Records
---
Amino acid sequence: MVNMRCFVATALALTGAAYAAPVVSDSDRFTFLNMPTPLGLPCDLAVGPDNMIYTNYLLANKIVQINPTTNAIKEFDIPFTLPLLSNLSLPVYGGVAFAPCVVRPGQDGNMYAATGLRNQLAKLDLATGVVSVFTPPNALQPVGNLQLLNDMWGGPEDMFLSQSTADVISAFNYKTHQWRTYQVPTPGSNPFGMRYASDGALWFTETLGQKIGRLNTTTGVIQEFPVPFPTVATPAVLRVETGGDMLWFTCFVSDSVAGINMYTHNFTNYRNTAFGSAVSVPSVNTLDAQNNIWFSTWTQNLLTYFPPATGKMTHIEIPRTLIYTPISVPFEMNVGVQYYGGEGKNRIYFTQSIFNRVGYYDLDAGQ
Ligand SMILES: *[C@@H]1O[C@H](CO)[C@@H](O)[C@H](O)[C@H]1NC(C)=O
Ligand SMILES: *[C@@H]1O[C@H](CO)[C@@H](O)[C@H](O)[C@H]1NC(C)=O
Ligand SMILES: *[C@@H]1O[C@H](CO)[C@@H](O)[C@H](O)[C@H]1NC(C)=O
């Protein structure tokens, strides 16, 4: 989802700085699951239509299924296809997935993942276990459609994906397998996080355009709402809706989670209150059953949540960490975070990519 090298370098430069304990230390409630593929680097997380947890690897061509009842892990291979040699926007890179960080459920009952620099969409058919790969029609645009920094969302009829470097949002129809392409009006806007909201529109962030977009998927009309920059800067992942009118998104640079009212277009912004969080890089957000918004922080091994009405944050230490803040040691790269309320569970799942593991935190004691 993000340029990893840049953040690793930042982290290495800043390690060893001051320590202050976050609010909650609760290590009994954590469970860690090591991924079977060495150096796979799990990144995003989602709940499937089958109530299983799914993650995808940054560095391996697989979609991973975790059974929340047994903790059993199953992997599905993404076939390596060359769409057409002439259509590749990059030289051949040895068949290795590079930096895809998104897995999402489709409303057709299947799971979808991006393939990173291969610029394709992978569909895991949950009935057959077969993964198919689909190539968007616009892979030849001059700047390429590198999906390194992208996201997806399953709408009622289409899987939507942002092709960030080409300023494009694409829709893949579940039934016909036809693509539609929507050009974002602002050049260099880098469309990224997205959610099909209760108003029937696809809302998305423009990470470099510093705007929130709204796509009418019927007419193709895109409205754009500038964020109050720099209070709100680099809107990133937008996955939470609350109260029927608010959409919430993480902000890398303003170190915050912000909201936009879908009807008044007013913004709310809550700064991360963890100690030394200036470069925490809030990454992904998710809503729990108590209507709390949780978010991951790329560089700090914490899980943080807040009620949308007050923004009052609680920070929970992820155990197996020597130093929590300002940059955690060891640096584990916490990106994925996903609430899970199925099978009688009440959990927050998270990924720690560099340690090749998925963890979960039980919200109820003694689960
Ligand atoms: C690949 O490029 C050819 C033209 O060179 C074009 O006709 C075809 O539609 C492209 N295919 C894809 C999948 O983009
Ligand atoms: C999309 O635009 C059409 C035409 O203006 C309108 O009737 C429809 O309600 C819009 N859809 C959404 C979700 O805003
Ligand atoms: C939204 O913002 C406008 C302009 O700043 C303001 O007049 C209005 O009261 C705000 N509405 C709410 C519900 O906060």
---
Amino acid sequence: MLIKIPKGWEISGGRATSETIYMNRRNILKGMAGAGLIASIGSNAAFGTAFAADGEDPSASLYPVPHNDFYKVTRALTPEKIATTYNNFYEFGSHKEISEAAQALKIRPWTVKIDGMVEKEMEIDIDDLLAKMPLEERVYRHRCVEAWSMVVPWSGFPMKELVKLAAPMSGAKYVVMQTFEDKSVAPGQRQFWYPWPYTDGLTIEEATNDLTFLVTGLYGKPLPKQNGSPLRLAAPWKYGFKQVKSIVRFSFTDKRPETFWEKLIKNEYGFWANINPEVPHPRWSQATERDIGTGERIPTLLYNGYGEYVADIYKNMAGERLFM
Ligand SMILES: Nc1nc2c(c(=O)[nH]1)N[C@H]1C(S)=C(S)[C@@H](COP(=O)(O)O)O[C@H]1N2
Ligand SMILES: [Mo]
């Protein structure tokens, strides 16, 4: 296997979390699961009462998770307060101040369905999934098509681990991610002109790239609801609208899906949506972006700075609308 030497984009390794704390918590859980003491983590109250205070996310005791220092970002981390109060989540309103409204979302019980072109369709409880997956922390850039961006420490696991679990058939080419649908908690879903539920997709090759991350936490804690709890995507070389929040379903298919944003405005938002400062949005430039932490305007990078990991995926795709 080719070992990649990290490039010079340095960060202070300041987010590194304690391996010791992590190991203790994980070992307790693994030991209990191994001994059959918890038949189904999270699908009953045992997990929550044993490890988390009332009202806390039952996955709280899993965090912090070990920091993966391989993916480095030179910019400063965005303050947690800003990353968790300036959000896009149209289910809760088509503006940035949805963090309070999003608290109406019920994140337990939460079941993730895996279906379509897979060996065996399945439904898996989120806490069972968390217990199976190798959780780690990664600092990634996050760039919205609206030309703002942030840098945050996500916790989660490589999407390729979920693809492995799903065991797609050899003919499957795409995986479609779908957000929950519940008008009673998400007032935005009563706005009938949006093509709910929110969906977006990746090719299997993209989904199994090392960079592609399924996020379960932020800043060393469970993911806040407004950021897409309990499970959202971070494929950081693509615009933010690809990063589906609060996922309830992964469907494998051989047909390229039409995504939420394509259904809504096809000439502005395409399937690939790779970041490129030289390809403007039809209504504005993508050359620069505003860092919502520092307020600075900075140059946008091709593939958001992740070209060394992902550019090869697209080398034989001339003719595809790769950048919007
Ligand atoms: N279900 C759902 N997922 C979504 C969105 C949304 O409105 N609904 N907005 C997307 C957009 S446009 C962006 S920029 C990111 C914002 O993620 P953040 O609020 O964690 O920064 O979520 C993406 N995922
Ligand atoms: Mo976005």
